[in-house]
Write a structure and sequence with these properties.
By secondary structure, this protein is α+β, with helices and mostly antiparallel strands. It folds into two domains: 37 residues, no CATH class; 128 residues, SH3 type barrels. It has three helices and twelve strands; from the N terminus they run ααββαββββββββββ. A hairpin with a 2-residue loop joins β4 and β5. The model has no long low-confidence stretch (mean pLDDT 84).
Length: 183
Amino acid sequence: MESKHSFFKRCIRSTQNFINANRTLAETHQLKQALIASGAVLFDDTQLGPDCMTLDSDVFAETVITAVSQQTRLTPPLQCSSAITVSGTRYSKGLFVVTGCSESLPVFAKVTLCVMDSTGLSALVVHKCKGQKNGMLGVFEVEECEELMCVLIDELWDYCPVPGYCLNGVSHVALKHAVFSTE
């Protein structure tokens, strides 16, 4: 009780707004609760998962090494893992990300490997996917292709990775944000 009271006293003193004190205190308190509920979204660091290891051409398939080598902005030595957390967002193997837009539809890719270079730049090795909208369900049907590519997390069209749901043997993806092209 005393900790809440001291919080409200600090708010009133710092805002110096005595006209509608109840409204000011209620809004400030709600904003503080929202910040607490949001969790670790304010971190600006990048962390690889616990299974972190050096990306070695002797260990990984040639297709993975080729895809990573085509990403010219990565500076060796490279570390890799099945999961990476970037600015509070966790990317992990098996999740889907939006890598672009084609004919007004998002282009999906399935995460295979997470990579971080020596400067802290992070990327994902992904399987490209063919997708089409299922208007009846309001989701996208995605079919994984064999082609691998390496995409920087900063260049994703949507920062939020989404899980795939299997329905009748077909993977379905529901977006959390609107994705559109300005072209």
